[in-house]
Design a protein that fits this description.
Blueprint lengths: L3 H14 L1 H9 L6 H16 L6 H14 L3 H13 L4 H15 L1 H17 L18
Helix pairs in contact: 1-2, 1-3, 4-5, 4-6, 5-7, 6-7
């Protein structure tokens, strides 16, 4: 017997996070963590991420903002990778984190910027490397 909701959740989870991450999570599942893995696969991935109201790119941006606000430092790198996978540029990620700083606080945004920069550097994005700073535009 197939469980369509679980299968849909796993499909979306793999699409967003990548096979390597999901395979590691599944391999690390124990009798103790199995109910939680089942719950997030169904609730987060099938019931929310697979809804038609927002595309994956937008959901990635919202997720990064929320993770920043909640200071979920162990989740940010994974979702920076997911955002890149869905076409969010490093510049757009920076804008999301900057925007989150206004509403969630500078310390939360600063933490997220550090994690995002390190993750983007791991993904070989040139925007995250080096120390050059973009030119500031002057307000008229």
């Amino acid at each position: 017997m197939t469980d369509e909701r679980f299968d849909a959740g796993m499909r979306v989870r793999r699409e967003v996070l990548g096979d390597d991450h999901v395979d590691r999570a599944v391999a690390g599942t124990t009798a103790f963590t199995a109910p939680f893995q089942d719950y997030i696969t169904r609730a987060a991935w099938a019931d929310v991420w697979d809804r038609p109201g927002l595309d994956k790119r937008t959901r990635s941006c919202v997720t990064l903002a929320l993770l920043t606000a909640l200071k979920c430092e162990h989740e940010i790198a994974m979702h920076v990778r997911a955002a890149v996978r869905h076409g969010v540029t490093p510049q757009e990620i920076a804008e999301v984190l900057l925007h989150a700083g206004v509403y969630a606080g500078v310390p939360a945004s600063n933490l997220a910027f550090g994690i995002a920069q390190a993750t983007l550097a791991e993904l070989d994005h040139p925007e995250a490397a080096g120390t050059s700073r973009p030119e500031r535009s002057e307000d008229p």
